[in-house]
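Q: What does the assembly look like in three dimensions?
Context provided by user:
Components: two
Sequences:
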Amino acid sequence: MEGLLSSVEPGVSTERKSHFRMVHCPYCQAASLMVEVADGVRREGVCSRCMKKAMFVAFPALMNSSAGKPPSLVEDPPAEGEAACFYSPHRRATKECSHCGVMVSDAWAAAWGSKTVCLKCLDHLRADTKQVDFQSRRVLWDSVVLILAMLPMTLFLYFVVFITAPAALILGFWHWNSPRSLIPRSKVRLVIGMGLGLLQIVGVSFIIWTAIT
Amino acid sequence: MKKAFDGYTWIAGKPRAGGTVWEGTDHFLFIENKPTFLSISEVYRRLDFRNVQAVSLRRTASRAWLFGVACLLHLLAAFPLISDPTLDDPASVAILVVFGVPGLILLISQIVRGPSVQAKIVTAVQVLTVRGISRQKEAEKFIHRATELCLFHQKDLSPIATEPVAPVMVTQQLKNSHIKLPFPGSKLVTATGMSLIVAGALVVLEAWLANLALTIVMLLSLALAGTGCIASLGRNRYFQLPLALSSSLWTATFVSALAGLFFYVCYVGGSMRVGLNTNTMLNVSALRHIGRNYGFPESVPEGWMIVALGSILLFCGLVALPSALGAKRIAQS
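A: Here is the predicted structure of the complete assembly.
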C-alpha cells in the first residue's frame, strides 16, 4: 500500500496519507481500491486491478483494520477473583448468555434485541426455524398458499388444480397462525388463497358431478 | 408496506425489488427476498453500524439494457409506418399501439427512475450487496442515512481526515463538486467511432452501388452509429471530453439524424413510385428503389447529398476514434 501511495499521491501530506486504506472493489471484489477515510465525504476511487471507478464513503471503522481482516480484539485478562470467559479463559467474563447461562467475554457475546447470547447459542438459534426472534430465514406460507391457488389459473397449468386447490386449503389451515413476513402484514393473502382454493374445489366438483349425471 | 415495526424504521428498498433495509437501534436489518410478484421466503441479515467500514456505489448496465429493449419495441412499432405511412390499415395501428405504447412507457420510466446502480456495504469480513436498491435516487437516500448512522456510532473510533480535500489521482470528489473530471476513455466511445467509420463508408458506397443488402446494412449501421453517439454523449456527460471528440460526436449525431431523415424521404418516395397497395411490413421494393434511383448516375444531386453525408460521418469517426483511444491510453498510463 505504501508503494502505491507514494507513486500516485505525490502532493499529499504524510498525515493525510495515514488516512488512506484499501477496500474491496465492488466490481472485481479484490482488496485493491484505495479510499480516504474522511468525515462522511464521498470519494471516487479507481481500482488498481480492474481500473474501474466506484463511489465510496469510508468510515472510521476502516482505520482499525485492513481489508479482509477482522478488527483485532483488545487483550482483557481476568483479574484475581474475576470470572473468566467460558470459551476464552484468558479473557474476562462480562456477560451471561441468556439462553445457556454461561459467562462469556465481550468477544463471545452478541446482543440480539434485548437479549445477550453467546456465539455458539446464536449459531444454534439462527438455525432453529422455531425460534422466531432468531430466525435467519422464514418461509412466507401466506404467499405459498396464494401461489398454489393462482397456479391453475395460468393458461398452461390448469390441470394441476386437482393437487394445488386442496393443497392451498390444507396449507392455509395448517399455517393459519404461523408467523408471516417480519414486516407486519395482514392475513389477506392467506384468506384470498384459501378462498380461491375452495372455489376451485367447488367448481371442479360441480363439473365432475355434471359430467357424471 | 409498513414503514416501522418493533423498533425498526424503513430506510430503503422494496420487497418486489429484492429486499428492504431497516434501521434498528444499533444495526441495519436487511430483509432479502426474490424480486418476484410473490416471494415465498425471506432472509434476514443484521449488520452493526460500528462494523461498517464503507459503503460503495457502482453503476450497472441494467438501465442501458432496458433502454435497448425500449428502442427495439419502438423499432418494431415503426415497421408499419414504413409500409403504411398514413396508417390506413387497422393492423398497422394495432402493431403501433402494441409495441409503441409499452416501449414509450418503458422509456419514460427509465428516464424518470434514473441511472441503475448497485450499493454495497463493506465490513472487515464481508462485502454485502444491498438488495432492493437499484437506482441512484434510492441509493442516495440510503447512503445519506447510512453515513449519518455509521458516523454517529463510530465517533469514538480512530480520528478521521479533516484536511480540505484536494483533487488527487486516486481519490477524487464526485460530481457534487461540479468539476468535470478528465475523460478516461471508454469502450462505448471507441465502438461508436468505429461504427461511424463503417456507417460513413457504407453511406458513400450507397451513392454508387445499387444493392438491397447494402442498403439494409447501411441503414442499420447508420442507426447504430447515431444511437452510439447519443449514448456516448449521455454516458460521459460528467467528463471533460476533448473538443475534437465532443464536436465530432455532436456533428455525427446531427448528421446521422439528417441522413436517416433523407433516406426515409427517399423510401417514402420509392414507396409511392412502386405503389402503396402492398400490406407487407417492410416494402422491399421501395428499399431497392433507394439503391437504384437515388445515387449516381440516375440522380446526381441526391448522389452528391449521399456522398456529403457519408463523408461527414466518416470524418467524424476518424476524429472520434483516435481521441477516444488516446484518452484511454493517457488514463491507463
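Follow-up: Chain A touches chain B through 64 residues (CB under 8 Å).
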